[in-house]
Amino acid sequence: MSFHYETPLVDQSELAQARAVMGAGMARILGYFREDGARSIRAIEEAFTQGNAAAMVIPAHTLKGESLQFGARRLGGIAESIEQTARRCVEQRLAPSEVGGEVAMLRGCFNETLALLESAAPPSGTPRPPMPGLAGTRPVTFGTAPRTFGRRTG
To answer: How far is it, in rounded angstroms, from Cα 130 to Cα 108?
Structure first.
């Protein structure tokens, strides 16, 4: 059994924080996560089958970051292991065969995680709760000057 199974599927406090920040938009963002995650997993599996460590790095990195924004610790950890091993394999010019176990766990963990996250998402139309520590404060407003990047103009 892999050490990844010792990691909780989702950190509930991080999920609660993500839910508070995203509010009703969480359902929409989970839709993006579903699409991007499936695309990343396909790319990782194909690269693994071809023995192409370099092609595993970016999709594993992407999946790791997207998973951790929801507190999906196990999926993020598996993706991080794949990413780190693939980077090392690229540097040492090795085939990524040692991440076969992680690649095999990836799809099932993704599906289980996604089901849990979707069940925890607030329904569409639910207002976003106030951010802790910001209750009663006025929103920040910006001047009417046109937005520019870099140096000030005019």
So the answer is: 35
- DSSP single-letter state for residue 133: T
Full set of structural domains in the chain with CATH: 3-120 (1.20.120.160)
Encode pLDDT of 11-24 as tens digits. Answer: 999 999 999 998 88
User: How far is 86 from 104, CA to CA, in rounded Å?
Assistant: 15
CA distance 136 to 84: 44
Q: How far apart are CA 12 and CA 137, in angstroms?
A: 28
Distance CA 32, CA 38 (A): 10
Dmax over CA atoms of the chain, in Å, equals 64
Distance CA 83, CA 22 (A): 27
DSSP structure class, residue 131:
P
Q: What is the pLDDT of residues 33-84, one digit of tens each?
A: 999 999 999 999 999 999 999 999 999 999 999 999 999 999 999 999 999 9
Percent of residues, the chain, with pLDDT higher than 90 = 66
Alpha-helical runs (H) found in the chain: 12-22, 25-50, 54-68, 73-92, 100-120
